[in-house]
Amino acid sequence: MAKKALLIGINYPGTAVELRGCVNDVRRMHRCLIDRFGFSDKDITVLIDIDKYRTQPTGKNIRDALETLIDKAEPGDILVFHYSGHGTRIPTPEGIFDATNFDECITPSDMNLITDNDFRDMLSKVKEGCKLTIISDSCHSGGLIENVKEQIGDSHVNKLKPAENTNFFVRIFKNLLAVCGRSSSQGDRGGPRGSFNREIESEEGETVTRYLPLDSYISLLEEETGETGIKYGKIRQTLVRRFGDNASPRVLSDSMKRNGHRGVFSMILGKQSEVNTGGAETGSSSSIPENGILLSGCQTDQRSEDVYVTRTRKAYGAFSDAIQTVLSQTRKGKKITNRDMVVKAREILRKQNFSQRPGKMSHPANYVGGARPL
């Protein structure tokens, strides 16, 4: 039995949305996996963006490293994927039903998004007898595996039926909200509104939200591509033009489904009509992954926080820091289940006056007795 991990930390140095705690999260987790869980340093891959001489955490590099982690695993192996960085979400294409009306994504250093459907498809390839634990300390991380049931969580889920999801006025409203980077239910939950690039004083020190509004993401994408005036309905086409076959498989698939017809409604929405195959499509055709567990730093419609602790002069993700606190309070050698980890992390964040609520998502087979330790 092998223990292998992939750790991603992205601070986005020099940008308007720079964070300070993500690389620190990775360094702490790296040491924790070795000292507490018996991982070997040679079996831990680390991608960070503060050293230009190291392999960068681009979209392609992250996907390649995660696919390698999964492909080379053998039955009985324990796999861990930890991501600390910005999260965002983009409206689902017209004609495709999604439980939240958005594709939740992580934001690599080159803005080449990795979507919830990409994670779902990769998890479906985990071999029988393996378990992959995903820890995501990023905004909207509760929806990072498309259509996987929450065991602990209360994320906003779209209650519309697939046919209603394609209603013109519903999509107009949804896409206008997306420009502001929030859903109709989000409000102030998960962090101070509009605080993605400023510091807030708290009892613990200063906090910066890991919230990346859609318009801020587009600005970064324009810097990456050299294009200007990118509309939110054109994000997928822009990613395909910039990254080609190295773009997200979900983004490539969405682009291939487009036809050449444009109507007045499509022009208002800023996108071409999707090919209609006899009804609204679901976000993914693959079965629910049985061998993956997601521990999210917040709910689908919430934000995760980046915390600078004055007394230690270091920044960490609030959820990542809570995980380390739970482990420090647990006797070494004593196993702690993923469920207990999330419940205790929630309580720590509540006492620290954070509104983000960590969650746990996995296949129904893992509901009872399947809360495997990290």
TrEMBL record:
Gene3D superfamilies: 3.40.50.12660
Listed GO MF terms: cysteine-type endopeptidase activity
Pfam families: Peptidase_C14 (PF00656)
GO BP terms, alphabetized: proteolysis
Domain Peptidase C14 caspase: residue ranges: 3-362
Region Disordered, residue ranges: 183-202, 355-374
GO CC, any one term: cytoplasm
Family to which the UniProt record says this protein belongs: Belongs to the peptidase C14B family.
Protein known as: Peptidase C14 caspase domain-containing protein
